[in-house]
C-alpha cells in the first residue's frame, strides 16, 4: 500500500512546479468523499460530501497553501503575510512553520472563530487583529506586500488556486467522472474558481467526459456577487464567508456562467439548519460556512435548479471544531451527576 503524498506529489504534472521546487507539505488532500444518505433522501439526488475539514489544519486552505508556501520558498521569501477570516491564517501559520518562514496575519477583530485564532497563535504567527473587515485586512496586506519584502499568500496569489484545483481532480478520480452539480460556499470566491479550473482541465484532457454546473452560495448578509455590488458592512453568523468585496469576483462569475451554474444567497437561518442536519443526521461536523453548500443544495433543489436523480457533490470546507463557541451555544447544557450508576441510569432514562 502506498500512502498519500500530498497534493503536489499526487498531481505534480498538473501543477506549476519543477524538479527543483522545494515541496512544503503536511500531506494535505486525499480527503474523503462521503455519501450523504440523509441529504440524498431529502433531495432525491445522489449527494456526496467532500469533507475538507479533514485536511491537516482542518480546512481546504491547505491545498492552496502547500503550493503558495512552496513557491514562496523557491522564490527566496523569508516571510509571508495574509488577511484572513481565520482558516487561511491557520493554514499559512502551519505551513510557514514547516518551511521555516515568518508568518504575519491580519484578521478582523472579534470576527474569527476561536479555534482558528488558537491555531495561528500556537503556530507562532504574528497576528494582528484589525478594527475593520476582512476586506480592509486584504487591502492592507496587498499594500504591505508591495512595499516590503513579504510574500502575499492570499488567494490572489495564483499558486493558491492551482493547489486548490486538486480537489476537483480528487472528486473525478473517485467518481470516475465529474458530477452533474458541484455546490460550494463562496466568500473571497477563490475556491469555486479553483474547482472550475480543475474540472475544466480534466475535461480538456479527456480524464472526465464533462464538467459540472457550479453552484456557489453566499450568506445573504454578505452576498456581493448575488447583489451585483460590494457590501460595505457584511454580516453573517458564518464568519468564514463574511466578505463584502471578493478578490476572485470575476473568476467566480466566469465559473458560474461557463458551467451553466448559479450563485445564490442563503440566510443564516438556512445555514444553521444545514449545520445541524449535517451534525445530527449525517454524523459530519462542519463549520457554519461549510454548511452553506448544503443549505444551498436544499434551496436549489426546491427551486428546480437541480433535478431528482442528479449526482451532486457538496464541498464542506472546514471542520466543526474550528468554532466550539457556536457549537456549544446551540447545544443543550450537559447534565452533571455524582459518582453513582443509579443517578446515571436515571439521567439517561434507562431506569
Ligand atoms: N468555507 C470556509 C470554511 C472558509 O474558510 C472560506 C474562506 C470559504 C468557505 C470560502 O472560500 O474564499 O475561496 O470563496 N475563508 C478565507 C479565509 C477567506 O481567510 O480563511 P473562498
Order of helices and strands: HEHEHEHEHEHEHHEHEHHEHHEHH
The helix-and-strand class reads: alpha/beta
Bound molecules: ligand F0G
Portion in beta strands:
5-15%
* Largest sheet, strands/sense/barrel: 6 strands, mixed
Mean pLDDT over the full residue set: 98
* Count of β-strands: 10
Global morphology: globular
Low-confidence blocks of residues: none
| Helix percentage range | 40-55%
Give the radius of gyration: 20 Å
Strands of the widest sheet, in order across it, are 1-2-10-7-8-9
Count of helical regions: 15
Alpha-carbon distance between the two ends: 49 Å
Descriptive overview:
The chain is α/β, with parallel strands linked by helices and 351 residues long. It is 43% helix and 15% strand. The chain has helices spanning 7-10, 37-43, 61-74, 87-99, 114-122, 134-147, 158-164, 166-175, 190-204, 224-227, 249-259, 268-282, 288-302, 324-329, 341-347, and strands spanning 33-35, 46-51, 79-83, 102-108, 126-130, 151-152, 181-185, 213-219, 262-266, 311-316. The protein has a six-stranded mixed β-sheet with strand order 1-2-10-7-8-9, with helices on both faces. The longest helix is centred in the middle third of the chain and has 15 residues, at 190-204. It is globular and about 65 Å long. The termini are far apart. The mean pLDDT is 98. The structure holds ligand F0G. Ligand F0G binds next to helix 4, helix 9 and helix 13.
